Predict the 3D structure of the following.
Amino acid sequence: MAIETLSSSVTTRSKNMTKRRATILREARNLIAGDGFDALKIRDLAARAGLTVPTIYNLIGGKDEILATIIKELVEQLQIIQDEVGSATVEESFAKQIHNLANHFATDEAFYRAAFIAGDRSGLFEQSSEEGIFARFVRQPIEACRQAVEQKLLRGNIPPEVLGPQIYGCYRSARQDWANGYFDLDGFRRQALTGIFLCLAADANPTFRERLMEQISMLESVSRRGDVTIP
Amino acid sequence: MAIETLSSSVTTRSKNMTKRRATILREARNLIAGDGFDALKIRDLAARAGLTVPTIYNLIGGKDEILATIIKELVEQLQIIQDEVGSATVEESFAKQIHNLANHFATDEAFYRAAFIAGDRSGLFEQSSEEGIFARFVRQPIEACRQAVEQKLLRGNIPPEVLGPQIYGCYRSARQDWANGYFDLDGFRRQALTGIFLCLAADANPTFRERLMEQISMLESVSRRGDVTIP
DNA sequence: TCAATAATTAAACAATGTTTAATTCTTAAC
DNA sequence: GTTAAGAATTAAACATTGTTTAATTATTGA
């Protein structure tokens, strides 16, 4: 398969453009991490990237396109993390996923905070795939609930199509509060998992319910030590 | 008590100013309801209100102050609705509250949608009272849970301080999805109450839990008819 | 080597939040 | 009633910032 089409053979020119594009995006992420997307000024970005404003427009586009590019990349990362769900118990699977997300956010917390705020505001999370990222991401908790019903962990009194979105809502709510600085990443982990486990517990059979209660208690006690390591 | 201080006796001047202030805010709400707060242009507002830009700055302030004034008013309305909680069962109390909120939003849905979006973005909801509106509003579900524990409806395995914020999160999450147009006010009612009832059910004793399950089922079936009337 | 073309740039444009200095109007003392 | 003081209002300008245009420069392929 030819990477190079008629007009994009790997020339000095295209290499420079690729490099500059990367520089622009890198500096954009830095600036956003500093003061949020609204504080990103095209002129500042041009200066930081060592080029001029129209070049940014040529290589990427205006503010909307810059954000869209960054959000698209973020969504792809989230998708990868979501696809890494192991084949453990339901609650371990959720815990692992929240854990992985938190670890990922920790690699550049300021940036991810700002990116989620900007993404939520722009509505880009909803538009970034044909059917909306929400629909795509909510499918997984729904499926997890369905499996849990099959495994007799959940009673099935609440349809998975009802429980799944609520679980997703708990995650998103916690993420938002973290992004807005109401608590740190440990708080995110605790808040998200507590919400998810509560939703599950509502429809859980007795033994599974007690297991979830224990998990929630552990989240609380662990969080007070400030040292959260979810297995 | 003298309403009129030294400098604000009820004169032609002060009456005009009060009237103009009200006009500005009314037109601001109209404009916001139309295209959101970001689309509110001071010049448009001045034209619609039949005065000039600096007068707006004199009587109210810039965009920040305009939004702050509107949000402050909104928060007061919410507080009034929240204070109207009756002395019914726990779940009826929550249902009543969500119902009242939805009815209130319905009086000017476009405006309230835009106002919540702008309020969430600005962080004004957190700043509008000394301790933050979140802390103030979350106190009520915590208290409700505490009472439910006393009434033996909840087992108390989940501390009210943990359950309360999750309940509040469900409400806020539903409100946000409604504000962003992902569903209508009936969807808001259903989503919010389903979440709240799920949280309660997680810690409910058997009979209360079944009662909540029934409520959730009813929410689902009612919503499919598109005709929601919560008692 | 050179003409065609693509990328880059300096400069201007447009929209919009905000402020300034002059003007008009209201008030209250005489 | 008149009038000076002061407050509200206004026209105009200012400042920032996203975006575009037309000219310049660099790269490419023949």
